[in-house]
Each structure stands twice: as structure tokens, then as C-alpha cells.
Amino acid sequence: MLSIKNLNSYYGRSHVLQGISLEVPAGRITSVLGRNGTGKTTFLKTLMALTDRSTGALVLDGQDISSAQTHQRARAGIAYVPQGREIIPDFTVRENILMGSFARADRKHVVPELVGELFPYLVENFDRQGGLLSGGQQQQLAIARALATGPKLLLLDEPNEGIQPSIVEEIERAIVRLNRELGMTVILVEQNIAFAREASDHFAMMEKGSIVAQGPVSALTDDLVHRHMTV
Ligand SMILES: Nc1ncnc2c1ncn2[C@@H]1O[C@H](COP(=O)(O)OP(=O)(O)OP(=O)(O)O)[C@@H](O)[C@H]1O
What we know:
34% of the residues lie in helices and 27% in strands. It is α/β, with parallel strands linked by helices.
């Protein structure tokens, strides 16, 4: 579904992603793992053309998007849920979700029914200001906003970071459902190895801007985790 070849990415003169190649299979969850500061967020940002500059080849379902801008990549079907969520606090829940719909190719401004199924709290609180929601609810809101773009590939950056355990479970269930029931392809940046193992089919382990190991999740050994993730 997404073919990544020799991807390099820069902030100013700082060369952060160093030649990443990865095949992201359709309908699967691929987890991107590694210590803090190894470039996982930069990797997702680069897929959305959100760093200062990047080189390399990106082909999404046969469409070359290597030089496409962020809005064109969104229209091509990639949605991004950033770390820190970046919802708009003064907008209502509904308005925040509808923000995503502006990235749709068909410009349909609707809240997908799916949002109500995955996150009933959001539809029950459509008119609440986003800023009044808890961290976990804001994370759900950010995922809902991404779903409103009608994506085929969802990029999630540590969706459970700093979130209360009851909502973590709901979000984990939603991610698995999106994939298993709706066939959505997901790239998940994750620190929680147990969830990465449970949810994903494939993994990529990053170290200093490169992928140092990748494969089916069955090949994600304790030794690999120990070598590349413990401090
Ligand atoms: N906007 C930026 N400008 C300059 N350098 C940056 C910028 N954002 C990140 N970096 C640098 O790029 C490197 C990779 O950071 P990145 O946030 O991608 O890592 P990460 O693996 O996602 O870490 P974390 O888990 O802490 O988010 C780090 O050395 C970081 O300091």
C-alpha cells in the first residue's frame, strides 16, 4: 500500500531521517518502535510532508506522492494523528471533527458514523468545547478528526501517551477495530511493547534516524526490545 524508499528528512541543516526504506502492507498495522529521539515522530511527519525538506520515493497504492504537499497527501488518503493531539480548544467537538473533512477529496462535511460507534462520548458531547475534554477524550477527538478525512492509511503517534488507563483501553480497542473490521492500514508509533505486539502485524525498530530491524511482529524478540528500547 505504501512503499517507502530511501527516505531522508531534514529540519534546517539537521539530517534526522537517514535513508529509511519500508513496505507498509495494506490492511495491516505496522508499529514503529525505538527510544525517544530516534526519529519516529519525524518519520510520520515526513510521510505527511511536514518537515523542512525530504528526499526519497513514496508510492501510495501506485501513486507517486514523493513531491506531493501535505494537503495533497491528505487527499490521497493519509491521515495523521499527531503526538500532543493538536485539537483546537475553542472549537466544539463537532467543529474539531469537521476540520478533518476539509481535507477530503469530495469535500463532504459530515461526521462519519463510525465516530459514534468507536467513541460514543464524542457524539454525546458534540457541542462541548474541545479544550474542556480530558487528555484521553482529546485523543479520541484527534482520531475522529483524522477519520473525518476518509483515510485509507492512518498515522498514529503514541496515541496512549499520558492518558488515563480506562481511556487507553478504549483507544486500543478502537485502533484494533479500525484495522480488523474496517481493514484500515495503520502506522503506529508506540512505546508500549505489549500493545504493539498484540495489535500489530509488522514492526520497524528505529535507532538514530534509521531502521535497524523490521519484519513480522513474531520476530520482535525480547532481545531486540532490550537492545533498542531500554535506556
Ligand atoms: N522541529 C525540529 N527541529 C529540529 N530538530 C528536531 C525537530 N523535531 C525533532 N528534532 C530532532 O530530531 C530527532 C528525532 O526526533 P523525533 O521527535 O522524531 O524522535 P522520536 O523518536 O519521535 O522521539 P519521541 O519519542 O521523544 O517523540 C531528535 O534529535 C530531535 O531533537
